[in-house]
Amino acid sequence: MASAYEKRILRVLDYIHDNPAGDLSLDQLADVAAMSRFHWHRVFHAVTGETCAQAVRRIRLHRAASALVMTDTRLAQIAVSVGYPNVTSFSRVFTDAYGASPAQFRKAGRHVPLPPKLRIGDYPMYPVTLRNDPLRRLVGLPHRGGYHTIGKQFESFAALCETRGLWPQIGASVAIYYDNPDATPEAQLRSFAGGELQGGPTPDGLEDATIAAGRVAVLTYKGPYAGISAAYHSLFGNWLPESGEEPAEAPCYEIYLNNPREIAPEELLTEICLPLK
Average of pLDDT values for 135-153? Predict the structure, then answer.
């Protein structure tokens, strides 16, 4: 079934090539791919090795580079034709990418070929299983910022549970990651750190979050949290294209099976859960 995902990738790349001055927003490209906005950008990055934004920039500038060496079109027209509103912004981005201004590039007559190839199968393999998860009611603390800093919210959550004697009401530790770090500025990333509430009202100072019941793909990752991004690339770049499954319009979440205060980093076990249709 990898071909189905390859076709989506190729359809989006064709769309970018055919519409360099058009709407190439992340949401529009997800529509072209006919795939969940929650997960499309992650699939694209895992399979191609670049984010949607990087692909748009590369293809637009390649089109511009071709026009510079193959035509006498004015710089202002080239800029508009590849989606830049003025020569100033176009020149800045082009110079950053090619190491020469558009005028210098045209004079030198250089031309750089397009890269990339699809990367399905290029990532380490991790075990993935399918299961039906129940509705999960969580309590915890919201977090905004880099996902690698969510630990401070887990520390605060654990301290509140300890001082208030809440541990008997709390099950597994869980984090929800609402945004794609490939497509969202780090300062704007939203997540939630907490645990499953076994019953009773929401304790003061904590917030509620819910994970809907349904089918999920579960990748079990063993190792330090710092290396978990490779497991996500494997899930979206290896397993999903070959699985025949469709991701749901819902964020990934992680379930932590042991305690980093008690276990060596290389022994930590994390379930990465991808909701499915």
Answer: 93
